């Protein structure tokens, strides 16, 4: 188990130091901003959605290692997914972080599992979910920046 934990830790550190899909997305058609005042994490999420499929996702911003790694992993996980499946991923991811049983329609989490350890640090759950709440706002074109508070 501790080997798995080390592996998870390595993936998180890697994604926080070298975030994937970092920077504005020139051809986006959805965008939202998110802010986690508890930790000071801020991010802007860009999406290119066509025919209900998320073709590309990117983000920029400043935040702690968990929020950056989570946003990086999320943008990787979203690419090529139908919008409905992105919502099912969030349902499963939220359940993972809060230690609740996954809802029946939750999608398999794949690499997002590496953030399971956040469960032990309730104060960091909002760092890990910030990108996902921002995704929700972007998909629904909410103008107001998202705050986790
Ligand atoms: Zn944070």
Give a verbal description of the structure:
With 149 residues, the protein is an alpha+beta fold. It has a single domain, classed as Sufe protein. Chain: A, CATH 3.90.1010. Helix content is 41%, strand content 19%. The protein is built from 4 helices and 4 strands. The chain has helices at residues 2-17, 65-78, 83-98, 125-139; strands spanning 30-36, 41-50, 53-62, 146-147. It has a 4-stranded mixed beta sheet, with helices on one face. Helix 2 packs across helix 4. The longest helix has 16 residues, at 2-17. Bound molecules: zinc ion.
Features of the shown structure:
149 residues; alpha+beta; Sufe protein. Chain: A; 4-stranded mixed sheet; binds zinc ion
Topology readout:
Layout: H1 2-17, E1 30-36, E2 41-50, E3 53-62, H2 65-78, H3 83-98, H4 125-139, E4 146-147
Parallel strand pairs: 1-4
Antiparallel strand pairs: 1-2, 2-3
Helix pairs in contact: 1-2, 2-4, 3-4
The protein binds zinc ion.
Residues 36, 39, 41, 63-64, 66-67, 127 line the site of zinc ion (ZN).
């Amino acid at each position: 188990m501790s080997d798995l934990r080390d592996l998870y830790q390595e993936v998180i550190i890697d994604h926080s130091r070298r975030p994937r899909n970092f920077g504005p997305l020139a051809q986006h058609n959805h965008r939202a901003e998110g802010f986690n005042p508890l930790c000071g994490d801020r991010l802007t999420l860009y999406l290119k959605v066509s025919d209900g499929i998320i073709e590309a996702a990117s983000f920029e911003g400043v935040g702690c290692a968990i929020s950056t790694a989570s946003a990086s992993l999320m943008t990787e996980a979203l690419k090529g997914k139908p919008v409905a499946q992105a919502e099912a991923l969030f349902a499963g991811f939220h359940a993972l972080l809060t230690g609740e049983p996954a809802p029946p329609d939750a999608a398999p989490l794949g690499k997002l599992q590496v953030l399971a350890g956040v469960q032990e640090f309730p104060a960091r759950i909002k760092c890990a979910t910030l990108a996902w709440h921002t995704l929700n706002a972007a998909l629904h074109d909410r103008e107001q920046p998202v705050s986790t508070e």
